[in-house]
Structures are given as structure tokens and as C-alpha cells.
Amino acid sequence: MLNSQNHFYAKGKYLFGFILVLFIAVTCAAFSMTGNEDFDFARREVLFRRIGHELLLQSGDSTSRVLPIKKVAENEYLIRFEKEFAFDPISLVNTTKRLLANDPLADDYVVKVLNFSDSSVAYAYAISKNKKDEIIACIGRKQPKARYMIDIKLKPTGINTSKNGYLLGSLPFLAFVGFIFFRSVKPRRALPSDDQHPDLIRLGSVLFDAKNRKLTINEKMIELTGTETRLLLIFARSPNELIERSRLQKEIWEDEGVIVGRSLDMFISKLRKKLEHDPAINIVVIRSKGYRLEINA
Questions:
Q1: What is the secondary structure of 87-154 as a DSSP string?
Q2: Coil, helix or strand at residue 294
């Protein structure tokens, strides 16, 4: 049982280490993704400002400003202007298509020209990489001069390519780390003196082989009887603890249907003599109570 507990503890320790490494890797990936998202927004902001700039130039305005781009929702942006301007729908469509072709995530989007006063839609169209899904109307009707805002909403794409790259790229690394940690948990071959072996118990300098009924003391082999082996196994499982006489009688003899009186003292005496080769080990009699296997480290 002690061996299984130690193995479980070791496995838990390595599993915790693996989870910690996994957490660090995911955290790093998350920060990288956040950094990429910030970069994508900054790059997209430049494209949107370029759209606003060209619209003003097309209307004959080369001095008024394009106000800061506002992100109104996920994948939705608002281009605002300092002054009024007029625009030609076909020029607006061509300008957005040409400039947003530089954004890999802008395959499908909806553009709405909003009136600044009440956000009502003055003009709108939808662009798609599938030409059949495009919606463009009123191309030949030039819009009057007014205070406008341009709302551009990109179609959500779920996890983008860069995120997929980070996640997929991290899988081989995480698999390798998991292999290393779980391989480390693999039980190692036990040395003869290692108490990880269920049939080998170390008692001071004595190696007790319960399965083969043997003691090894200073490279000397000592044979044990079946009764001596059962007795010593009870003591070995509870070293330096009082073992009541009644318990020994029950577990050694009464469970087999034989009730004895002084036979226990005889077997204790024989076992004590076989252990006397190691002075650090002794079976002590506790008067009127039982016995205790004392091991002085």
C-alpha cells in the first residue's frame, strides 16, 4: 500500500508539473494572440483611415481631418469625419474593395454610410468573396454633401488563421512535454533494498523476503518457517508499535482453527534469535500486553 501511495504521489507531482507547463504555454499563446489582435487592429485602422482620406480627396477636400477610428463592436468599425462631404457610390465601392483587399480577414463585409445627426442609413452595400452574394445598389446616384460616418462590419471568422497557427503549432510541443512527464512516472526497477517491492521489507540492515521466507543480514541468508514469516510480517508492518498478544494469536493460529497457549512465546523466542545478528533490531516483550519490534536507526 505504501508503494502504491508513493507511486500515486509521484504521478500526481509530475502531472502537476505537466499541467503547470501546459498553463504557461497556453498563457504565452494567449498573450501572443492578444498581441496579434492589437497589431491587426492597428493595421486595419490604417486601412480605414486611408478609405476616409481617399473619400475626402474624391469630394475635393484635401484639408479636413479623418477623425480617430472607433471600434464599436467585435469586427465592426466606424470611420468619422471632421466636416461634410459628398460621395459617389461607385467610387466608395471601388475604394473599399481595393484597400480592404489588403486585409486577409476582410473577405466578406457590409459597408453602411450613416448620417451623423441620427445614424440613419444613407447608403449601404455588401461585399463577398463569392460574387453571387454581393449586394450593391444605387451606383449611379451621387449622394449630396452632408456630415457622414462610414460603418464597416466584417464577417466573423471564428478562430483566425494566426490563432490556429499558434494552437496547432503548440500541439507537438505539448505532446512532447506530456510524453516526458508521464515517462518519468514509469516505475523504476526496485533495488533489493528498496521497499517498493511488495515482498521485500527493509528492517534496519535486515532485508526481509516474505515471499521466499528468508532474512538477509550482512549477506547471510537465514531461513524462516511459515509461522515465523507470518509473525515477522505483522511486526514489520507496524515497527516500534505495540502488537497485542491476542491479535497475534488470532491472526496466526486461531484463524486456522488452532488455539495455543505458550506456543506464541516459543516462536517469538526463535524469531528473536534469528534477528540477533543485527543489534539494532529486537522484539521486546511488553508484560501483560504483547510485543513490539524495536528498530533503532
A1: E-HHHHHHHHHHHHTT-TT-SSEEEEEEETTT--EEEEEEE-SSGGG-B---TT-PEEEE-EEEEEEE
A2: strand
CA angle, 219 then 223 then 225, to 5°: 155
Which is nearest to 65 in space by CA: 51, 54, 53, 78? 53
pTM above 0.90, yes or no: no
Cell of 89: 457610390
Answer whether 207's CB lies under 8 Å from 244's CB. no
DSSP reduced 3-state for 81? strand
DSSP label of 188: P
Tally of CA atoms within 13 A in the half-sphere of 7 that contains its CB: 15
What residue has cell string 505495540? 242
CA-CA-CA-CA torsion for 14, 20, 22, 26, nearest 10 degrees? 180
Extract the C-alpha cell encoding 3. Answer: 508503494
pLDDT digits (tens, 9 = 90+) for 39-86: 777 888 888 999 999 999 999 999 999 999 999 988 899 999 999 999
Q: Is 238 exposed, middle or buried (0-12, 13-18, 19+ CB in 10 A)?
A: exposed
